[in-house]
Description:
Elements: H1 3-11, H2 32-38, E1 49-51, E2 55-60, H3 66-70, E3 74-80, E4 85-89, E5 97-111, E6 117-124, E7 128-131, E8 136-152
Antiparallel strand pairs: 1-2, 2-3, 3-8, 4-8, 5-6, 5-7, 5-8
Amino acid sequence: MNRDEVNKLTKSQTGVVIIQLEKGQHMPKPQMDLTKELVYNIDAAHPKIEVQNGGLVTTLAETEFPFIGNVGLSVIRVKLEPNAIRAPSHLVNPAIQLIYIARGGGKIEIVGLNGKSVLDTQVKAGHLIVVPQFFAVAVIAGEEGMDSYSILTNKE
């Protein structure tokens, strides 16, 4: 698409976030050299921790994916087998953690700085949980297991 076609397409849309291509219009091909800098397949990465019949934890930081460090983030992927438990943990670095449940479900408990539970709830695919700085999180997978992705506001 050239600049005029892009302008025509965007101005013809009534929606703000989602647009629809007309018949015969095609999305431009991605620039593969740029794509390699912006896309990382964390599912294919070697896990940092792997427990037979328990699950795995894969971390993604600046050393594996420089772009994510440039924007000050890191990612943790946790895949728990059915009824597996991820031991309570907290981040040593000051960071807010967003946990997205991608598959399955289970229970999450978050404990505050005073040691009191601030959240103890069932979660399922599609849920997004915010964990404040220095709070501890424990996760128990349900009968289907649970896959989650955490985005941390710290690049380590």
